[in-house]
Amino acid sequence: MTALAGYNALITGGGRGIGAASAVALAEAGAKVSVAARNENQVVEIAADLRESGYEAFAFRCDVTDPRQVRELALSATEAMGRVDILVNNAGTATSNPLPKITLAEWQHILNVNATGTFLCTQAVWEGMVERRWGRVVNVASIAGLDGDKYISAYTAAKHAVVGFTRAIAAEGRAKGVTVNAVCPGYVDTPLTDETIARIMHLTGKSWQESLTSMLEQVGQPRLIRAHEVADAIVELCLEESSGRTGEIVVLDGSESL
Ligand code: NAD
Predict the structure, then answer these.
(1) pLDDT 10s per residue in the chain (258 long)?
(2) Which sequence spans correspond to the domains of the chain?
């Protein structure tokens, strides 16, 4: 597929999981890609693998919570690719704790990475997209951005912020050629979910399989979603023919047949 040939994409948190799968899917769709994450080794490896497969790919270290690093990322990605047409705000992190145990530092960190990072990265590439009257912003939120559950209040608040930001900025991009959408997956088969399962095992003494089953049952999810399913939904929102799709919140809850 070369539907995105001629377009350039920047993916944050692209070192592993959904971000890495999105970088691969966007490259396979024909886009040039810049992959950024806090962990430089991971993104360097992803970009090298993509180049080896014949795609144009670049890697940058960036902590999305740091406004200076985000500005530098936008400049470097623009220098490497010519411009940024597509931004995937994927960098995110989660913790789980009952309310009395959440420290202020933990609360602020979760809000910073998920919500403030999304704001900073979008702002850094926004004006160029508006000037060219073409842009796609896809924010990776979560079903936690639409619903609430116990022990994940910081993450839930942060992802609700991402969903709200998506809707508001979609309105700003309307009639300017820039679409802004969010994907809201349930539990996805990534290292982040592995960490959640490990925490449940530690707290309950259950096995890996028992912990996974109880985690999925709690949210009524029939199976883990695969990272490439989220990546495919992201690519679809970036296509030329998706120019009329903005302010959408695309839910992936694992109920689709495989
Ligand atoms: P992951 O932990 O496997 O990967 C996260 C990536 O983000 C890594 O590359 C990491 O280096 C990067 N990152 C973390 N903090 C960063 C920071 N401050 N600056 C730059 N990069 C940073 O996670 P994942 O499961 O692939 O999740 C990706 C996104 O999808 C996150 O926003 C997450 O909240 C969301 N999400 C995940 C799930 C799930 O079940 N895994 C479900 C719904 C939504």
Answers:
(1) 699 999 999 999 999 999 999 999 999 999 999 999 999 999 999 999 999 999 999 999 999 999 999 999 999 999 999 999 999 999 999 998 999 999 999 999 999 999 999 999 999 999 999 999 999 999 999 999 999 988 999 999 999 999 999 999 999 999 999 999 999 999 999 999 999 999 889 989 999 999 999 999 988 899 999 999 999 999 999 999 999 999 999 999 987 654
(2) 8-186+226-244, 188-224
What stretches of 94-239 show up as alpha helix (H) in DSSP? 104-111, 117-132, 153-173, 191-204, 208-219, 227-238
CA distance 67 to 70: 5
Which atom of ligand 1 lies nearest, measured to the CA of 188? 40
What is the spatial distance between Cα 57 and Cα 25, in angstroms, rounded to a whole number? 12
How many angstroms separate the alpha carbon of residue 113 from the centre of ligand 1? 9
* C-alpha closest to that of 15 among 49, 34, 42, 52: 42
Cβ of residue 90 lying under 6 Å from some atom of ligand 1: yes
The interaxial angle of helices 67-81 and 117-132, nearest 10 deg, is 40
CATH architecture under which domain 8-186+226-244 falls: 3-Layer(aba) Sandwich (3.40)
Query: Closest by alpha carbon to 257, among 225, 219, 220?
Result: 225
* pTM score above 0.90: yes
> Contact at 8 Å (CB) between 240 and 177?
no
Dist. CA 75–CA 95, nearest whole Å? 31
Burial class of residue 133, CB neighbours in 10 A (0-12, 13-18, 19+): exposed
Q: Is the minimum distance from the CB of 113 to ligand 1 under 6 angstroms?
A: yes
